Amino acid sequence: IWHLSVKWQFQYNDTLAARVDGYRTLSAHIQRFRDITPESGAYFLTRIAAQNEGDVYEPDHEVAYWGSENYEKLLAVKRR
């Protein structure tokens, strides 16, 4: 089991470009862990809301969040 906590925050007056660059940089760092722990997923824990937020740059979100065996089953239930 892996638990990785990474902190990154932007300032209220940061530009959109700076925020996007920050997300991309963080996602690139997390990629190292994706590479050594397949299907482990990625999430961000927001400091204020204390909730998980999916990585908008997650390359394979279906597998990362639900697992390769579960995604099709969950999708079938959703389509009912």
Defining traits:
3 helices, oxidoreductase activity
Describe the structure in your own words.
The chain is mainly α. It has one domain (16-79). Helices cover 45% and strands 8% of the residues. It has 3 helices and 2 strands. A two-stranded antiparallel ribbon has the order 1-2. The protein is extended, with a radius of gyration of 15 Å. The mean pLDDT is 77. This is N/A. Residues 52-80 form the Berberine/berberine-like domain.
Secondary structure topology:
Elements: H1 16-36, E1 43-45, E2 52-54, H2 61-66, H3 71-79
Antiparallel strand pairs: 1-2
Compact description:
The protein is mainly alpha-helical. 45% of the residues lie in helices and 8% in strands.
Number of helices: 3
Using the alpha-carbon principal axes, give the shape.
extended
Low-confidence stretches: none
What's the SSE pattern?
A: HEEHH
Strand content: 5-15%
Radius of gyration: 15 Å
Q: Total strand count, please?
A: 2
Q: What is the topology, as strand order, of the major beta sheet? A: 1-2
| Largest sheet composition | 2 strands, antiparallel
- What percent of residues adopt helix (DSSP H or I)? 40-55%
* Whole-number count of domains: 1
Average residue-wise pLDDT: 77
Structural class: mainly alpha
Give the termini separation.
Answer: 33 Å
Organism: Ganoderma boninense
Pfam family, one: BBE
InterPro entries: BBE
Protein name: N/A
